[in-house]
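ok so I'm stuck.
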Amino acid sequence: MEGKNFMTVEEVAQELNVSKSYAYKVVRELNTEMRGLGYLTV
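replied:
not stuck anymore, here's the structure
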């Protein structure tokens, strides 16, 4: 992941050893947290 500022849902699922659907939930929660800290999320 060197040089990247993001991870795909597939990468999140693989790193956490979870399903893609659960990885989407994790990404949504982290994006909400990051927006609360003033970061731009997509």
